Amino acid sequence: MKFFNTALILFSTFGAVACDMCGNFMGITPYDNQSQLTLLHRYRVFNGYRNYQQRSVFFIPGAYKLQHDPSTNPTDSVVEITHHSAKDYESYKVIELRGKYFLHPRLEFNMILPLQQIKTSYNGIKRTNTGVADPSVFLAYHLLKRLNEYKLRQRLIIGVGLKCPFGNDGVTDTKNNRLFLLTQNGTGSWDSFYYLNYILSVEHIGFSANTMFKWNGKNAYQEKLGNSFTQAISVFGRLELNQLRIFPAVLANYEFTKGLYLNKKLVQNTNMNLLMMGPSMDVNYKNVVLNMCYQFNAFERVSSQQLSASGRFIIGLTWNFTQRKYLINS
Questions:
Q1: Cβ-contact 77, 127 below 8 angstroms
Q2: pLDDT tens digit string along 81-133?
Q3: How does residue 304 score in pLDDT terms, banded at 50, 70 and 90?
Q4: 168-206: per-residue pLDDT in tens?
Q5: Which residues contact 51 (CB under 8 A, 6 or more apart)?
Q6: The whole model's pTM is what?
Q7: What DSSP assignment string belongs to 23-81?
Q8: Burial letters for 47-79: b for 16+ Cβ neighbours within 10 Å, e otherwise?
Q9: SS3 state of residue 98
């Protein structure tokens, strides 16, 4: 049961997914006072203009591969959408190194160090921007811990974090024009986020809910991403096969932000109002966990100039280790 309590919390790793366009991703990771290191890869793509009756495609040609065709110029910028082509896309690939360390049985320190590649294709012009994205650090405190000695097990965690503007937000094209902020790897602003996570489990089934609010600051270009709200819910189970433990889950994730502000004026067609759903599976052997998740677009409100969300795919490898100075159930 000790492992079950650890693994069931693992599902909220993919539950607290903030908007990629908002410059931050925050997740909750295993929680039985086990520290951990995670290498996580995320891929997300936007494709298809819904108001032009176009269907979104997840693996659109050129959106995922490492380099575009040699015939294209990866640094040409696009200022205006003129054709609304079904071949237009924006894709976001992120590799993150995550760490978590318990400072106290109820207090943990977390960090996320991301490397990001953004690809766009508009009006037949493709561009790639690769670089270090903004890292995040956050503290979480466990308000409620009802674990092995209870038939109905619960956790309630409150957290606060800071996104640091260490990524580059000043990348320019071949004509020395600065690229649009939403295609920069950094936002140039100090942002804070606050979250509440609740987990409930009994026997071989459980439930997790995570609410996060992110307050964004302003950068040197007088740009500010609108404050964002994320609500994630997951239902999960447990299967055992010899020494393997498999944890299937169904996830629902809602994201909202009004969009980008420039000189305190909202830039049109930059909003996000989206519900994504999909399955996940975590496979555990000893202290190593393989994490997999896919989410598709369940609901979205977009303008005529916006690409629709096609989906999100996440895969990660987590190594858990116990800090001996703490008791697991302390």
A1: yes
A2: 556 677 788 889 999 999 999 898 889 999 999 999 998 888 778 888 899 99
A3: low
A4: 999 988 888 898 888 899 999 999 999 999 988 888 888
A5: 302, 303, 304
A6: 0.83
A7: T--------SSEEEEEEEEEEEEEE--GGGTPPP-TT-TTSSSSS--TTS-TT------
A8: bbbbeeebebbbebebbeeeebeeebebbebbe
A9: strand
Q: Residue 239, Cβ neighbours under 10 Å: how many?
A: 12
Closest CA to 195 of 79, 278, 110, 113: 110
The whole-number pLDDT of residue 98 equals: 92
- Structural contact between residues 114 and 168, judged by C-beta atoms closer than 8 angstroms: no
pLDDT band at 156 (very low <50, low <70, confident <90, very high): very high
Q: Which residues, in sequence order, are CB contacts of 130 under 8 Å at separation 6+?
A: 115, 116, 117, 118, 185
Assess contact for 241 and 248: CB atoms under 8 A. Answer: no
CB-count exposure of residue 168 (10 Å: 0-12, 13-18, 19+): middle
Do residues 17 and 278 make contact, with C-beta atoms less than 8 angstroms apart? no
Q: Which amino acid is residue 103, in one-letter code?
A: L
CA 3 to chain centre: 25
**Among 29, 32, 56, 33, CA closest to 45:** 56
Cα–Cα dist 133/114, whole Å: 5
Measured CA to CA, the distance from residue 180 to residue 223 in angstroms comes to: 11
Q: Which residues contact 329 (CB under 8 A, 6 or more apart)?
A: 2, 145, 147, 148, 149
Closest CA to 230 of 216, 257, 212: 212
**Number of separate helices (H) and strands (E) present in the chain:** 1, 17
Q: In sequence order, what are the residues at sequence separation of 6 or more whose Cβ sits closer than 8 angstroms to the Cβ of residue 50?
A: 56, 300, 302, 306, 308
| Domains of the chain (ranges, CATH numbers) | 2-316 (2.40.128.130)
| H/E stretch holding 5 | helix 2-10
Side-chain-side CA neighbours of 3 within 13 Å: the count stands at: 17
| Residues facing 38 on adjacent strands | 98, 318
CA distances from 1 to 28, 136, 238 (A): 20, 32, 11
Q: Is 21 helix (H, G, I), strand (E, B) or coil?
A: helix
